[in-house]
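Hi P.,

Sorry for the delay on this. The queue was packed all week, but I finally got your sequence through. Input first:
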Amino acid sequence: MSQNLVLAGPGLRSGLRTVAFVALGVALITLAAKIQIPFWPTPMTLHTLAVMAIAVAAGPRLATATFLAYLAAGAAGFPVFSGTPERGIGVAYMVGPTGGYLLGYLAASWITGALAQGRGVIGRVLAMLAGLAVIYAAGLLWLAFYVPAGRIVALGFTPFILGDLLKIAVVAVAAVFVPAHLLGKIGR
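Then the structure:
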């Protein structure tokens, strides 16, 4: 029996490390969601910073798994989203005005992680900009169900773009201080 435990050891440690990374990632995304400047219909948060940092650090699979776990926690009713529980919880919150941005963050987790792997600073910045474009595309399309067409850009893009570009710059600078062989592999 002890021989079986020894043989399962490295796989078990790897699995536990992955679970721990996902749990810490969900905690980071939740914290990023709670640090906010209230806006209507969507608040300004640090979501972009957390999503991009996790994608660059962990790669596409682990970043996507982390954001899926975050969404699952929110769907289950845990108050992980910005404005929860005051603005609703669970699936009801997810189909509200911020729902498209949440879908965009999920897609950006994969896209940014995949495009950033093995890249230098410029490549990582371009990967994050591609992810940001997906976030805004999904967010603005979804927001069209909640605000008049002529107000979508003014309410869902303009107040946020400079802050999001600054968040990408912060992640890009921070990534310079992480050894290159670890980028895209942290948490594995």
